[in-house]
Design brief:
Distance between the termini: 33 Å
Shape: globular
Number of helices: 9
Structural class: alpha+beta
Strand content: 15-25%
Mean pLDDT: 92
Radius of gyration: 20 Å
Largest sheet: 7 strands, mixed
Helix content: 40-55%
Low-confidence stretches: none
């Protein structure tokens, strides 16, 4: 049996992180400049049903039966088996490699789950649909992040820019004109689950104020969608900066994120904000075409540990 390889891109949230957990809209796009790749190789000499897992990027080499049942990788594999209605996978080695930085807000865990689900199901000859893959990845995200919005698994599984409201059908966005984003990482790790849970406690303590902030973010998201689909995408810049200011009020930014946002704006970015769970991770900046290198250089000088640029279009080109 030949090797089967599947991959999944990273993602960026352009607008609406955190408020999306509270049933407000968000816009996210795939980031094809980074990806997770999973290769499935048959092991004809191994015991029947043995699933060997190799993930060198995180130092993991084990078998499925040695993983806790609630390990994210185990959740995905068992969910694939359940969805396909089979008893087990044939003896196989699943090798997972990734160029997506972990805990950087670029959807590393969702991309890993999507690529793994696709590789495992394709290996047995029954590739899952995008919707099935997205639902399986969401189960893994729940284990990792507690109460995820569902946007990461959705945009990664479909690899299209999306407008998303929790528990409603996804809507794909047509991008009127491509635009350029520079992402920069603070080098500070923060888990999405911790940030989401801490914000929930603050919301419970003062729901009226937080609901007002969520409503203001929702207005920004809807205006941004209209601009992306019909207008001049340079107008997204001020909206990004306004969204970041609201995320600061929500308590999910940090000194490091704020410093990079300020550096991007001073270097000529049209707008900038944190992207993802916050507390650390990365910022994204809307930049004029051709200015990527100069703005990236300014971000490195301001303390970013890496930068990556991407062009967003209807095809999710990045």
């Amino acid at each position: 049996m030949p090797a089967i390889a599947s991959s999944a891109p990273g993602k960026m949230i352009l607008f609406g992180e955190h408020s999306v957990v509270y049933s407000r809209p968000a816009i996210a796009v795939p980031f094809l400049g980074v990806k997770v790749k999973v290769t499935a190789l048959a092991n004809p000499l191994a015991p029947a049903g043995q699933v060997k897992i190799e993930a060198p990027d995180i130092g993991l080499q084990t078998t499925l039966d040695q993983l806790p049942v609630d390990h994210p990788i185990a959740i995905v594999i068992h969910a694939v088996i359940e969805t396909l209605g089979i008893r087990s996978l044939p003896a196989v080695t699943l090798r997972i490699t990734s160029s997506i930085p972990i805990t950087a807000g670029l959807g590393s865990s969702a991309a890993s789950a999507v690529a793994l689900a696709r590789a495992a199901s394709s290996f047995v000859g029954y590739p899952l649909t995008n919707e099935q893959v997205s639902q399986i990845a969401f189960r893994s995200e729940q284990r990792l992040h507690g109460n995820p919005s569902g946007i990461d698994n959705t945009v990664v599984a479909y690899a299209q820019p999306v407008y998303y409201i929790r528990d409603k059908p996804i809507e794909f966005i047509k991008v009127a004109a491509p635009f350029t984003i520079v992402a920069a990482d603070t080098g500070v790790s923060a888990t999405t689950a911790d940030m989401v849970n801490a914000l929930r406690m603050r919301w419970q303590a003062d729901p009226e104020r937080h609901e007002g902030w969520f409503d203001r973010i929702a207005e920004i998201v809807d205006l941004a969608r209209s601009i992306i689909e019909h207008g001049d995408c340079a107008e997204l810049g001020p909206l990004m900066t306004r969204n970041h200011a609201l995320l600061q009020l929500l308590g999910v930014s940090s000194a490091e994120l704020d410093r990079l946002v300020d550096a991007a704006l001073k270097a000529g970015a049209l707008g900038a904000k944190l992207s993802g769970g916050g507390g650390g991770g990365n910022i994204i900046a809307l930049v004029p075409a051709g200015s990527e290198e100069s703005i990236a250089g300014a971000l490195i000088e301001a303390g970013a540990v890496w930068t990556k640029s991407t062009v967003v279009s209807s095809r999710g080109d990045s």
